[in-house]
Amino acid sequence: MRIEILPPAAAVGHILCHNLADGQGRKAFRKGWRLRAEDLPRLAELGYSAVRVAILNPDDVHEDEAALQLANIVAGPGIIVDEPHAGRVNVRAAMNGPLMIDAEALFAINMIDGLTVATLPPYTLVRPGQMLATIKIIPFAVPSADLAQAAAAVGPTGVLHVATLVRRRIGVVLVSSQAARARVERGMLPAITGRIADLGATMIDCCRTIPDEYAIADSLAALLTIGADLIITAGETSVVDRDDVIPRAIRRLGGEITHYGAPVEPGNLLLLAYLPHEHDTIPIIGAPGCIRSRDQNIVDLILPRLMANERLGRREIVALGLGGLLGPTRRE
Prior knowledge:
By secondary structure, the chain is an alpha+beta fold. It has helices at 8-11, 40-46, 63-74, 103-110, 144-152, 181-198, 213-225, 245-252, 298-307, 314-318; strands spanning 2-6, 15-16, 20-21, 27-29, 51-55, 60-62, 79-81, 88-93, 97-101, 115-119, 125-126, 131-137, 141-143, 160-162, 169-175, 202-209, 230-235, 256-260, 271-277, 280-286. It is elongated, with a radius of gyration of 28 Å. Catalyzes the insertion of molybdate into adenylated molybdopterin with the concomitant release of AMP.
């Protein structure tokens, strides 16, 4: 593509580089307009004897077509691609789920001159119709080779996709003394069930038990028996150590404590574990006390990802520290 200043008659078929205004300052022709022969009388009437235009090379792709091609390169499963306008295409969610982003592919595309893709943060829980990213072609056209380079950087699920929430049968274990049981249930269960419902899942049962590793293990086993594919534990107190009663109960059943403690506030006292069961490995969240609030906390960051069957480990939890201050801290 090259830019030239031409008489209007010679500029027919080429693309205006700037808006053209009439005598009152009103837009008569917009930037990006491809001049036609029928536009010449109007240009003469407005007094334009020369215009600045972009002249495309044979292998150039117009900004609208390029934006649409790039959007289809970027978009993976669970994503709707809008129509192009002025070199821009927005992409939206087709369903609920966490937004998964291939950060390396995104970086590679944005390193190509003239191509830009701006997204929501990775793992954002998105809803149908929500805008996930905007694709903008900066010049009026780009070489087709640049789009081929972008396509070569992308894997089979695109740069971004909405992950399917496959784990929808959620079991809950509330741990407290008998004296505190009603208070704990009142304080925690509404926020827990609200989160589950927001994700389109079902709480298949809630077991109430005392802070004893054998009793907790029995509750976990009971939930597995009725088909729970993800379990949330919460209680009168947060898990305070890897050897607390909840992690001991998980290990008693053959489970593995994947990580304890998260660089996220609210939610530092997170426990994440996995428990083998039949042909599956069931994620268990040992929720900190902040789960009683509907304000965003660590549970909101990991629950959708676990429901999407992502195997989270120490590395994934530690990575949440970047941007992990979700709300004001409290004095200890």
